[in-house]
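Entry 14. Two folds queued back to back today. First construct below, sequence then structure tokens.
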Amino acid sequence: MLYLIGGIFIFFAVHCLPMMVETRERLIERVGTIAYQVGFALVSFLGLGLMIWGRSVMEFTEIWQPFGWARYATIMLMFPAVLLIVSAFGPENSFRRILGHPMILAVELWAIAHLLANGDLASILFFGAFFLWALAAFISARRRKPPVGGRAGLLNDIGFVAVALVVYVSAIRYHVWFAGVSLLN
């Protein structure tokens, strides 16, 4: 459990920096943009690695038994999560334009979906930490820069839906490889 908790602390401590605008700006002034970005990435990877490792070696402690429908709800919630994460990249699109922060919302949906399907302590700590961070990050981001309304090209939106569908189907197919859990049986 120590690796998981340590990873959570490291990963989310660095990910709280963007919410502390003045502190982040002072740090960038002191070390420079590239050094800040490299440091942010390295510390993030360290924290994420510790979280994943800690979750994988932690003894299974069931807190609750997920409902039978939770698996299907998780699979259904993941398409909008994938669509939001895909829409966070690339050219302008309606999802990013209206929501402003689709990646953070994708993390919230991903975490909620996985909390529904997993009732063990390691999963609750892992996905719960992501959910709480994403909630705080979304509120903070909306205070700093609310989304700009307007329209983006319909073809861009259709393209993002198509890419999200491919990523979603691939994630279902290969989930066993990167998460150790098959979704197909």
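Second construct, same run, same settings:
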Amino acid sequence: MVRTALKGKTMDVDALLKELNPGGAYELRRDGYWAVWPDLDVRAMAELMRAREVRLSTMTGTPGADGSLRVIYHWDVGAHLLNLETTAIEGRLPTISDILPAADWIEREIRDYYATEFVGRETTEPLMLRETDAPGLFSRTSDVGHQTDPAVTARTTIAAKDGGSR
């Protein structure tokens, strides 16, 4: 049992994880609890966390070795960090920003960097990009399928759009 950040309540993280995904594998590491659930129902997760008053710390988008996008939801459960990893299917995940407004900017950032669509949002305004920029700044591959450095790709793309003025 650990105390949550809100109202000094105690929470059993193991019980929370079992409620979220009965039978789902997870582990306690030095840096918190970790679960990799590719088919995680992120909306059910967000509803449960809100009901239990667990704070969303942030989300991380990171390309997987197979070209998929892994999204990790980081939660503050008192004395522990809870990290729940899922996979964007065909570049799409359901939004949780209507359930947890703190997710709004993070979803927009992940959209800008990886062209991920957060289904259920009325609009997804760019956060880091200009209105005229296409999402997917950190595309991991070039047109011919070779690995590229995201920073170099982004600068080259922006410079080409601006006629080399940057």
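Quick look at the second one. Residues 2-135 form a domain with the Beta Polymerase; domain 2 fold (CATH 3.30.460.80). The beta strands are 2-3, 10-11, 27-29, 32-36, 55-63, 69-77, 80-88, 92-94, 117-119.
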